[in-house]
Every structure is written in structure tokens, then in C-alpha cells.
Automatic annotation (TrEMBL):
Gene3D superfamilies per record: Hypothetical protein ph0010, domain 1, Hypothetical protein ph0010, domain 2
Domain AMMECR1 positions: 1-215
NCBIfam families (UniProt xref): TIGR00296 family protein
InterPro entries: AMMECR1, AMMECR1_dom_sf, AMMECR1_domain, AMMECR1_N
Protein name: AMMECR1 domain-containing protein
Domain of life, source organism: Eukaryota
Pfam family, one: AMMECR1
Species assigned in the record: Ascoidea rubescens DSM 1968
Length: 216
């Protein structure tokens, strides 16, 4: 089995490919991919709920497709939600939204498939932080909320973002305040009354090449 892959990541590719081919529904359902992983890899996981908050992240692999490293990719789209959603419904919805509706990027096109990498992060273990620094790098994702000039702001980083960017906690918080919509020239998280929620994530990933190899 490809390292750190899952039927959830495989299903996201099915959703994307079906959408690019103008199909109204995925070719296979999530149960198909779970059964496929069990048959091919004796797969099991500790996903023991039917509904999860989740994020879907699409990246473009920049390195060797056969031997790429974790840092050899560029973000292509990432959107999710903090509400519990039935897994299949949530994966269908956010695989498409993150691929086609992330306002930071143009919609993904079929010509990009060969270099795509998808990551699925299922969110769990939510806790209210005692203060903005009450979380662990590499273990927790964080969501912050605060008020800036009468306007409510919020933003989140998944657990792997600060590690990939080599940020410490304070740098992470400053970038998160900026992500929430505060001008980068005024960013200092200490200026705001930040409410922090920390959480953990079960992350799985799969490249397009590994997806195709499922059917070989």
C-alpha cells in the first residue's frame, strides 16, 4: 500500500476525475474503495465514526513523480469545514470545492491530473486553548477567532502547516492573523483578544500515479 494512503484519498480522486469528465456522480462510492483497500492491502483504520469535520487539500508535485519528497509540492487548493459531515457526502462536496472553488487559485484542469497529490485530513479531539500558545507544534491544528475594528475574524491552519513552513508558534499565529484578513503591515497576534481552539487530524495522502496503480 502506498505510504499513508487511504480509501478516503482514493475516493477524492474518483470525485475529481468524474467531475472533470462531466459525470454527475463518482464512478465508485466510498464503500468500493474501502473494500478495495481491504482486498489489496488488508487495510484497517481507527476511523470509528460516520461523520467528521474534514479538509481536502490538492497539491501539485514539483519533484520526481516516482520519488517525490513531502516538501516537493505546491498548494493547488485547500478547503474544508468544522461541521460534522457524513464522510462520503463531505468528501464529495469538499473534494470539488477545494479543486474548483478555492478563491486563491484557478480551477484544477484535467491536464494537471498527472502531477496531483491529494490529502484528506479528518479533524478530531477539539479543545479550547487556555491562551494563544496552548497547543503543540506538529500535533495540533489551530483555529483562532478575534475581533478587528468591529469585524469578526477567524482562520485555521491544519497540524502540518507550521511544520512544513518551519514556523514557531508565534510566527504561526502572526501568519494566521494575516490569513484571517488583517493587513500584513499590522500583524501582531498579541494586539488581539484571540480565542483559540486546538484539534488533531488524521491525515492521509495519495498521488494520481498511486491512484491509477490501485487498478493494476
Amino acid at each position: 500500500m502506498p505510504a499513508n494512503s487511504s480509501p478516503y484519498a482514493a475516493f477524492a480522486f474518483d470525485v475529481l476525475i468524474s467531475s472533470l469528465n462531466k459525470q454527475k456522480t463518482p464512478t465508485h462510492n466510498l464503500r468500493f474503495y474501502k473494500d478495495l483497500f481491504i482486498r489489496k492491502f488488508s487495510y484497517s483504520d481507527d476511523i470509528n465514526h460516520d461523520s467528521y469535520p474534514l479538509f481536502v487539500t490538492w497539491n501539485i508535485i514539483e519533484g520526481n513523480l516516482s520519488n517525490y519528497q513531502d516538501d516537493e509540492h505546491e498548494l493547488r487548493g485547500c478547503i474544508g469545514c468544522f461541521s460534522n459531515l457524513p464522510l462520503e457526502k463531505g468528501l464529495i462536496e469538499y473534494s470539488k470545492i477545494s479543486a474548483f472553488e478555492d478563491p486563491r487559485f484557478e480551477p484544477i484542469e484535467k491536464r494537471e491530473l498527472n502531477r496531483l497529490l491529494v490529502s484528506i485530513t479528518l479533524l478530531k479531539d477539539f479543545e479550547v486553548g487556555l491562551n494563544p500558545l496552548d497547543w503543540k507544534l506538529g500535533e495540533n491544528g489551530i483555529k483562532i477567532s478575534f475581533v478587528d475594528r468591529g469585524s469578526k475574524k477567524s482562520a485555521t491552519f491544519l497540524p502540518d502547516v507550521p511544520v512544513e513552513q518551519d514556523w514557531d508558534k508565534e510566527t504561526t499565529l502572526n501568519y494566521l492573523v494575516q490569513k484571517a484578513g488583517v493587513s500584513k503591515y499590522k500583524v501582531n497576534y498579541k494586539k488581539f483578544d484571540i480565542k483559540l481552539t486546538k484539534y488533531k487530524g488524521d491525515k492521509s495522502s495519495m498521488s494520481y500515479k498511486d491512484y491509477l496503480n490501485l487498478f493494476v
